[in-house]
Amino acid sequence: MAVATRLIDDLLHVTVARPDRAPRRRGVVGHQCLAAVEDLRGLPVAGAVEAWCQAAALATADELILAGDALLRRQRPLSRHEELTAAVESAAGRPGVRRLREALPLIRARTDSPMETVLRLAIVRAGLPEPVVNYAIDVGERLLHADLAYPQERLAVEYDGDQHRIDARQYERDIDRLWRIEARGWRVIRINKSHLLGSGGEAIRRVRAALRSS
């Protein structure tokens, strides 16, 4: 039973559910679906975790980390880390399994944007301590979340994407949110895409300096 089809580079990709055999013929690339099939508007498709595993055939390890973080996002997550772990453990022999195994230990839950992941990876790969993702800070009347945080040092690292600049309401909310966090004795470092150019040297320099002065 064919469960999904897609057209890529003039080749028809067809995914079938086990125990059916993946088709092999000219112009067709066959895949086997190892996870449960889900219904999307009447179309049977592979589930989110299975799609992540299939992407490993083409994606880099960093792209799989970004996608994995997105699956475990803070709002309306599509999976749990245990499900990703189980999928990788059963992925022996699949295309890209080495990249899946490389990506899995670096995937974190509760992210809000891909650039938070990019920033976190840059920090860790520079040899700095790994920050906590979307740490909840008690500001009295409610909890506010820092993109990345070092709770012991009371240091918050915020990534400001373009929407923080061009969306007036977002910009106003950011000002109030960060003021409340700083009023609780936290130091806030704001990072944007220019600081992550190349290997992210400027972002790393700022985070390192803040940690040393904490």
TrEMBL record:
SUPFAM superfamilies the UniProt entry points to: Restriction endonuclease-like
Domain spans labelled DUF559: 147-207
Gene3D superfamilies: VSR Endonuclease (3.40.960.10)
One Pfam family of this chain: DUF559
Domain of life: Bacteria
Protein name, as recorded: DUF559 domain-containing protein
Native organism: Leifsonia williamsii
